[in-house]
Amino acid sequence: MDRRDGVEAVIVLAVDDMREAPKYETFLRPILDRLKKIDGRASVSIMTNKIDPTLPKLQEWLKEGVSLEVHSIDHPCPLFNSNDFAKAKSTYDRCVELMSAIPGNRPVAFRMPCCDSLTRPACVSGRKSSTRPRSTAAFSPWTARFSTSQHRMIHRFRRELVIDADGRQKFKKFVPFESFVNTIDDYPYPYVIGKLCWEMPCVTPSDWQAQTSTSR
To answer: Phi first, then psi: what are they for 60, rounded to 5°?
Structure first.
């Protein structure tokens, strides 16, 4: 994290589900160029499913400051939807290996598939209220070696800055369920999971909510 004087917040810009580079280049190019003008580098994370690790475009992105991160090979939704732990771990591990096969890339983050669209923190036990998902503990060899952060929780601000004129929470309408266990209020800080990695909440609305909640 940035500890420089005067820095009050750090925002991670990320996009997920990448399987092909051209569409992401088209979408990200204005953002990357703008970031380079501001900070001299394009600090954006692309959470990736499958990609050819030899693509020249990946090397161009890395030189600009982009990071290529892990989002599972098969994108099961949720991760343990088949109740097959070995299968879930395989899609996770294979994506880690793929991202590590990209020359010059070192993945440091993992985003849980469908963490913004399913009301469960991706635990195997099936208990929706679980606060210590088995995924972190069971995948700890990968976590300890490669990852410093995970994205699984949705953060929702409730302060005056994000309150509508009628007094309603401006972003609550984007939360997909009334009781959404993946939601955390007014705690936009990374916190340690199992002494292995940081949990870094993503801010709502996310890309999934932008596509599916426009009527709300």
So the answer is: -65, -45
Mean pLDDT value across residues 50-61? 97
What tens digit of pLDDT does each residue of 103-147 get?
999 998 888 888 777 766 543 333 333 333 455 555 554 444 454
CATH number reported for the structural domain that contains residue 151 in this entry? 3.20.20
User: Per the structure, how many domains does the chain have?
Assistant: 1
Q: Is residue 70 assigned to a domain?
A: yes
Q: What is the rounded distance in angstroms from the CA atom of residue 150 to the CA atom of residue 173? A: 25
Is the model's pLDDT at 51 over the cut of 90?
yes
Asked whether residue 7 is domain-assigned, the answer is no
User: Contact 82/91 with Cβ under 8 angstroms?
Assistant: no
Q: Which domain holds residue 184?
A: 13-212
- In-domain check, residue 6: no
Flag whether 76 is in a domain: yes
Rounded CA-CA distance 147/6 in Å is 28
Strand, coil or helix: 184: strand
| pLDDT for the residue numbered 159 | 62
Q: What is the pLDDT of residue 149?
A: 53
CA 90 to chain centre: 19
Q: Which residues contact 56 (CB under 8 A, 6 or more apart)?
A: none
Radius of gyration of the chain (CA): 18
In the 8-state DSSP scheme, what is residue 215? T
Q: Please give the pLDDT value at position 72.
A: 92
